[in-house]
Amino acid sequence: MGSKLGRALERRLPLIVVSPLFAASLVFVYGFILWTVWISFTKSRVLPTYDFAGLLQYERLWSTPRWHVALSNLVIFWALFVVLCLVIGTLLAILLDQRIRIEGVIRTIYLYPMALSFVVTGTVWKWMLNPGLGLEHVMQQAGFEGFRFDWLVNPDFAIYTVVVAGVWQSSGYAMALFLAGLRSVDDELLKAAAIDGAGPLRIYLRIVLPMLRPVLMSVVIILSHLAIKSFDLVVALTGGGPGYATDMPATFMYAFAFQRSELGLAAASAVMMLMTVIAIIVPYLYSELRRR
Amino acid sequence: MKQASGIVRPKGWWQTLQRLFLFAVLGLFCIYYLVPLFVMVSTSLKSLAEIREGTLLAPPRAINGEAWAKAWSTACVGVRCNGLAPYFMNSVLMVVPAVLISTFLGALNGYALTKWRFRGADMIFALMLFGAFIPFQVILLPMARTLGELGLAGTIPGLVFVHTVYGLAFTTLFFRNFFIGVSDGIVQAAQIDGAGFFGIFFRIVLPMSIPAIVVTVIWQFTQIWNDFLFGIAFTVGESNPVTVALNNVVNTSTGVKEYNVDMAAAIIAALPTLAVYVLAGAWFVRGLSAGAVKG
User: Fold this and answer.
1) How many domains is chain A built from?
2) CA distance B245 to B238
3) What is the percentage of chain B residues whose pLDDT exceeds 70?
4) Which one of A39, A107, A117 makes the best mutation probe of the B interface by having the most chain B beta carbons within 10 Å?
5) Measured between CB atoms, does A34 come within 8 Å of chain B?
């Protein structure tokens, strides 16, 4: 490395190493997004065309009934999934925080579904909720002859089976994040409150939970992000059906891109998904990065 | 944990009652989380006749491994009836290089961005981080075309490429967060001793980042093994990863529905990530909280 050139090269090595990786990100993230956005403004169907066609695809998208089904499913799933995961996660975190000796074991049990693929989760719940042989059958055998549970094949209720399976998989994750938050609350503060005569319930409601606001914020964001991207679970559990009753934006996009060869329409739906994620993530990232 | 914060305070029978209630609730939730696993295992060990006669929650009368053998080697995935074995191998061939490459590049990138801060490093990081959050639907179409043009469409190397590219944002984030906590003095001292960029990376930085490497490898392994979207969008038939093959086994509409085979197949597909979780749970949890930013 004696030569001048060598030293100059050595000084720029970090930049030389980062550049191709950054370039890959520019192309495969930003470039690809631009391509998709552009296609969403064209008449592309089976093959991409590049002539600007205005908002045609967005008009088609918003006048497609299936898209509206997908959106209302997303709203239902999102709201229930986030709320139920938060409630279960907070409850379990607080209960686990009571000096339980076998906490490690219990935590392992609560969290293992996170290690599973959503496809596996979907497969199992599909079997358990099977009308005829699943839980319905169990209840009937237990003496409740008239028990009916056909949500999986009932277009009005099938989306709730996705919620059931999704909450089963992800509520332990919410618990783990909350528990980490609880452990970071200062002990001294709680002791002081206890000395002042505050009961345990009041300590939780008035002191601990408000202090967990930032954690709550992250958990909501993470769960929302999971909800918007949910694809595997729907495909494995209901296949989007019956009909397209449990379609979500992610499965809608996939169906129109790869099964129906409606590139423009699929691109428009993907752009809508991206906008939704940006609306949630960017303010969060901004506040996170500023805090550090 | 904390004396003061406990719901439970020493008060005799009242304390005992609360403690019982506490364990009852915790126990109920244990059952809630474990029932699907139990159902999966017990169904996979039953014969089809027993499944029809008995109930979901009944344990198998006798251990019957037929469904497992079938799921592994003769179950039909679409039109091919070779079981999950070849697809399991596909997943292995996909996950090993993808995890190693994305972890290595993430470490190198995180190191360059934190320990050799050049102008614009923060901006580059912020821009790259965005890639961890996008819904992948927005890149599916152009990526499918790109893979086609590279001659990688429908191949395992194609999947490795995709997982590496989109795993990079996260692995970089992870190593950057780790390296920020490492003193700059170590690097500066090595520089004075005449060590260069790569020398410091391989001899000093990498050996001290074992924890970060373990967490990243486990996280990436779980993510990539469990992936379904890229697998179904970018592979066809023979090159499907195991998650896609599992879905095909379950949703093959011809013939008798073999729930025991479905469940055995689901366990086979889940086994590698479950094993990692059981063996390295603590690391997995650390990845989850680190990946919390990613979601």
Assistant:
1) 1
2) 9
3) 92
4) A117
5) no
